[in-house]
Amino acid sequence: MAKRTDHFEVRVEPSYRDRIAFAASLKQVTLTELVSEAATLAAEEAIVVHPSTQISPAEFDAIIAQGDEPSKVRKLVLAARRVREAPAFRRR
Known about the structure:
Layout: H1 14-27, H2 31-48, H3 57-66, H4 70-85
């Protein structure tokens, strides 16, 4: 496991803190471990439900240039649909 060196502060209502601390004690983990795990899972979930593709400016220009030909536009649309329906990365 990587060494944890970053500090992250969260402000919550006292009743929430008590509830979170109680949950941590039930799981037999520290408050930090519980909050870190929950935040990480929430972040991963948010990333998964908002898929995006990042490409370089040169790749973008190449795709736009390809779109000038109608037959290639159809191929690009079909390729995009395949990726959307069966993404290469899936949540575990």
